From TrEMBL:
Keywords: Hydrolase. SUPFAM superfamilies: Isochorismatase-like hydrolases (SSF52499). Residues 4-176 form the Isochorismatase-like domain. This is Isochorismatase-like domain-containing protein. It comes from the Bacteria. The keyword Hydrolase applies. CDD domains: cysteine_hydrolases (cd00431). PANTHER family: ISOCHORISMATASE HYDROLASE (PTHR43540:SF1), PEROXYUREIDOACRYLATE/UREIDOACRYLATE AMIDOHYDROLASE-RELATED (PTHR43540).
């Protein structure tokens, strides 16, 4: 029996604010997906970037080590999950230390504990957390669905290539509204 979870990845204030050209309907569209998942009893897992004070785990990373001091630590308002998709009490919030949702996190333990074998992915950015998570999840034998309009990237062409040419080889690619329609 398939058990699905919706992963909402890197929808943090600082990240949402750094994706140029993000359409005004992006976070409301994801909010619809989150609401539909909750109604259907599909677990919603929020995946965020986070570091402890002093960010020792970020220093060896060319990407994360270049961030300003205090970025994505407790108290950083940019680390907050966007209010349109904020977690409800009881929903898992998984903190990762690298690009993939699995890297430096307990995501796999959370998913296995819930009996999840099908992941529905949404997040920022398509060429970052979504791509890295798709690859790692496929290697871990999860069934995958990517919500193409629930992802975005700084480069629209990269987003298009990934959602139209790369991700379909790993799993299903669909739109938020089509996924929601299939829940009922």
């Amino acid at each position: 029996m398939t058990r699905t979870a919706l992963l909402v990845m890197d929808l943090q204030q600082a990240i949402v604010g750094r994706v140029p050209g993000l359409d005004a309907d992006f976070t409301p569209r994801l909010a619809r997906a989150v609401a539909a998942a909750r109604t259907a009893g599909v677990p919603v897992v929020h995946v965020v970037v986070g570091f402890r004070p002093g960010r020792p785990e970020a220093k060896s990373s060319p990407l994360f080590g270049a961030l300003p001091e205090g970025a994505f630590t407790d108290g950083d308002p940019g680390a907050e999950i966007h209010p349109d998709v904020a977690p409800r009490p009881g929903e898992a919030v998984v903190t990762k230390k690298r690009v993939s949702a699995f890297a430096g996190s307990d995501l796999e333990l959370v998913l296995r504990g819930e009996g999840v074998d099908h992941l529905v992915l949404a997040g920022l950015a398509t060429s970052g957390v979504v791509l890295s998570t798709v690859r790692q999840a496929a290697d871990l034998d999860y069934r995958l669905t990517v919500l193409a309009d629930g992802c975005a990237d700084r480069d629209a062409e990269v987003h298009r290539v990934l959602t139209e040419k790369v991700f379909p080889h790993q799993g299903e690619v669909t739109a938020v509204d089509a996924w929601i329609a299939g829940l009922g």
